[in-house]
Prior knowledge:
By secondary structure, the chain is an alpha/beta fold. The chain folds into three domains: 93 residues, NAD(P)-binding Rossmann-like Domain (Rossmann fold), CATH 3.40.50.720; 180 residues, UDP-N-acetylmuramoyl-L-alanine:D-glutamate ligase (3-Layer(aba) Sandwich); 135 residues, Mur ligase, C-terminal domain (Protein-Tyrosine Phosphatase, Chain A, Alpha-Beta Complex). The protein has 18 helices and 17 strands. The strands form three sheets. A six-stranded parallel β-sheet has the order 7-8-6-9-10-11. Strands 12-13-17-14-15-16 form a six-stranded mixed β-sheet. Strand 15, helix 16 and strand 16 form a beta-alpha-beta unit. Helix 12 packs across helix 13 and helix 14 runs parallel beside helix 15. The protein is globular and about 65 Å long.
Amino acid sequence: MNSIISFLKNRRILILGFGIEGRSTLQFIEKYIPDTDVAIADRNPLPLENYKDKYPVFSGDDYLKDALLQYNDLVIKSPGIKMNAENLNDVEVASQTDLFLRSYADITIGVTGTKGKSTTASLVYHLLKSAGRNVFLAGNIGLPVFDIVPLLDKNSIVAFELSAHQLQRIHRSPHVGVFINLFEEHLDYFGTFQAYKEAKYNIFRYMKEGDIAVTNDSIASFIENKSINVVDYNSLDISLNKDLLPFRGEHNIKDAKAALCACKAMGEDVDKMLPYIYTFRPLQHRQEFVGTFHGVSFYNDSISTIPQTAVAALETIPDVTFLLLGGLDRDVDYSFLVNYLVANPVKYVLYIGKAGKRIFEELVNASYKGIMLHYDTMEEAFNIIKSYASPGDVCLLSPAAASYDRYVNFQERGTLFKNLATKF
């Protein structure tokens, strides 16, 4: 912790982005270096209301330009704010992730991947916790790392979920890096798939000799650092009773293998860890069975924001009758999903948003044989389902698109779906 404090001490700091992580940064500074000159910047003025009497705050359309005129010594950036925004490339920019890994990489299992990183990081945490290890869960699915730092000792382990946004401009990779899979995603932020991939590969790029990369063959082939140990999670030979597993789908088996390999890298015996897999509680909004109401079964897979996850859900959940697709269009290639649906038609495809419209048009061009219906709200979708559903039908929300055009996040979208399902 002292190295982080030393880095921040005697600096004029701009906290850029004032969500969960930004507030965590401020709390850390207030507690450990309270005399620091700090300002807060966020486009949205609402989070800043309670702080403007104590700190300089910047909000509105020109918030960053105005802030950097006065605070250009050090910026602590929250994930998701583009690095090319305004003059951000002309100042020193750090992040909680970057500063944490500089000091605590040796006790960190970092987990990334386009999909499955939350489940895998949570599995790592659950397995190690069950084995009696002093483990913490950090990242989007856990706590901000600055909240964890005061609690760490030499025997601690941190399971750290890492998005591409968090991996940008880090200077040290975790001792154990887990990279599950890689698909097109976040093109609205990164601009190109190549830029997105480059950010993801930072999980291995700054490893030291003896560090461990847990991944698959296709990702491993691009690893440039030859001094590290590479483990293919697909090669892990284990026997799992699928009837007792708390999750379904081959993708979840891969997540479990990756988690076990990460635990092994931290000195655990895989065979002794296997029973703990069965006591894991799956995360919400991931092929989550909501229940059966008036004979219709509902599954919430709101986490699905790319075509590959929608296909995975369709392959895992049998006999889907209603498929809810669409949302924010991020220019992702939908041919994989379209080709799958043409070969495996769902009776009713309900679509929403610009992404849904594009999927609809591509399905029409591909002579799709199912019935396609447009909806503007989740309530309207359920009215449509009520009009056509029969006992024994299965309804799946697996949008293959981001939620931000209508909802705060995928959790809000999934929760609304679940609430409406229980009232069906």
